[in-house]
Amino acid sequence: MTSAELINVTSVTSLTLVGLAPLSDHSLFFFFVFLSVYLFVLSADSLVVYIICSQRSLWRPMFCFVAAVLLNSLAASAMVYPKLLSDLLAGGSSVRVSRSACLCQAFLLYSLGGSSFMLLSAMALDRYMSICRPLRYAALVSPAAVAVLLLLCWLLPATLVGGGVLLASRLPLCSMQLSRIYCDIYSFISLSCGGGAAQLSEVYGLICTTATVFLPAAFVLFSYGRILAICLQSSRSFSSKALHTCLPHLLVFLSYSISTAFEMLHRQLQARSDPAASLAASVVLVVVPTVLNPVIYGLKMKEVFGHVTRLLSCQTER
């Protein structure tokens, strides 16, 4: 690499996001579409969290984890939707973003994404203890234990992802164009000039993904597998009640897993994918879980659904 090329590489201070290029001809239409989605996410998540916090009958570990997942979803939405709406309103096919702002967004999205899987694994642990170890449930799943689990679910991904972002921030970049609608660490690393530092970042990223996605997902599958085995050996009424309480969590877990699998598949095909495929991967990863979470918990959990209908009916009467 010549001295002129070296200066050009090390002086990259901003990146260009071109993920919105397929929507540039209809940007105003999609602005209202994503605005409607974001308003729904804000109102639905906030409504369910408000009901859980305001009703003493819902002050239980299971609903505490539900509120944490929805708050996590709200935070992730705030990292994407406002900037996306601003970019759509501007109407351009490309968006300039500073290198530091890009890394900051990537850190927040990846740490919140890892927290989502860890929170779902904490839910699975709660359901496992409640159904498979009912006599020890109150002692083991105490308020202090729930608080420790919540802190672990948020702090561990933030710490691991923070290390990955720090490694990525030191990489020299040979390109400045991302085919995404938001910044992510994997795409950022793909812009680097390669070499040992980039390989180290990729290996560290795999370790982070294993710790915050694959291992929690495996624990969720193991826990619900054990619950299913217990239900098959129990009475019909007990099995029906147990499976009913687990169904919403399984549906949310499936929405996160399918969205993440779609994103990982796109990573493997990224070199051969067109802008429309990149846009689809970005939208699926962000929109699907944030929209489905409040719908599933609001409709499938009868305790929450009952309070939602009563609250809305009172407002309608007024």
Q: How does this structure look, described?
A:
By secondary structure, the chain is mainly α. The protein has one domain: Rhopdopsin 7-helix transmembrane proteins (Up-down Bundle), CATH 1.20.1070.10. The chain has eleven helices and three strands; from the N terminus they run H-E-H-H-E-H-H-H-E-H-H-H-H-H. It has a three-stranded mixed β-sheet. Helix 2 runs parallel beside helix 10, helix 3 runs antiparallel to helix 10 and helix 4 runs antiparallel to helix 6. The longest helix is centred in the last third of the chain and has 37 residues. GO terms for molecular function: G protein-coupled receptor activity; odorant binding; olfactory receptor activity. It holds the Pfam family 7tm_4. Belongs to the G-protein coupled receptor 1 family. Keywords: Cell membrane, Disulfide bond, G-protein coupled receptor, Glycoprotein, Membrane, Olfaction, Receptor, Sensory transduction, Transducer, Transmembrane, Transmembrane helix. It comes from Sander lucioperca (Pike-perch).
